[in-house]
Design goal:
Blueprint: H1 2-33, E1 39-41, H2 47-60, E2 63-67, E3 75-79, H3 87-94, H4 101-124, H5 135-138, H6 140-143, H7 147-154, H8 175-193
Antiparallel strand pairs: 1-3, 2-3
Helix pairs in contact: 1-2
């Protein structure tokens, strides 16, 4: 009895699959004949139904992809060969977004611009090593941005840099005279200690 019921269920499933396949073949042929429709989205279906639809699409010479997160919401999209989806379009469908060619063109243009900037940066050569920022920026809140410029304007360079005029010297003795005086003081101290 149980074997008979199982056989009856299997035959019923087989009949349903055949009917589903015929229905999908009709829908796919309608899709192929529709001239203004580059893609068609089918309702969410089970794994077996999706595999049947993929097979029908492949036999008809179409491209098909499944999208959706969980088994209950997965659906199939069928594309005509001349309107095959780009990788960006497929990524948008995988994320659950609607495909917008204008937005995709804008993203593509931004990527090209970034690539051109990177290429120009490579042509300029490596950046010289140094700190990532200017130390003045760190202390700007303390010294301000105009303080250094004002100080640089008022400061004048010493024309005799490194040479001290004789008039500015306090000690006019020669080195030998200074050394002799230091030795004499040392000898005097030693004599007092003894």
């Amino acid at each position: 009895e149980q074997a008979a019921r199982m056989k009856k269920l299997q035959e019923q499933e087989k009949r349903q699959k055949v009917e589903f396949r015929k229905r999908m073949e009709q829908e796919v042929s309608q899709f192929i004949q529709a001239t203004g429709e580059p893609r068609r989205r089918f309702q969410p279906m089970s794994k077996i139904e999706r595999s049947i639809l993929h097979d029908v699409a492949e036999v008809a010479g179409l491209t098909s992809f499944s999208f959706g997160d969980d088994e209950d919401s997965r659906y199939v999209m069928v594309f005509k060969k001349e309107f095959a989806p780009s990788d960006e379009e497929l990524d948008a469908y995988r994320r659950g977004e609607e495909w917008d060619p204008a937005r995709a063109e804008e993203r593509r243009r931004l990527r090209e611009l970034a690539a051109q900037q990177e290429e120009a940066e490579l042509e300029r050569g490596p950046t010289p090593p140094g700190p990532p920022n200017d130390y003045k920026d760190k202390y700007r809140h303390l010294i301000g941005s105009d303080a250094a410029k004002a100080a640089a304007r008022t400061m004048e360079a010493n024309k005799a840099y490194g040479c001290v005029p004789v008039a500015n010297k306090r000690d006019t003795r020669s080195i030998e005279e200074a050394m002799n005086e230091i030795r004499a003081k040392k000898r005097l101290r030693q004599a007092e200690d003894e």
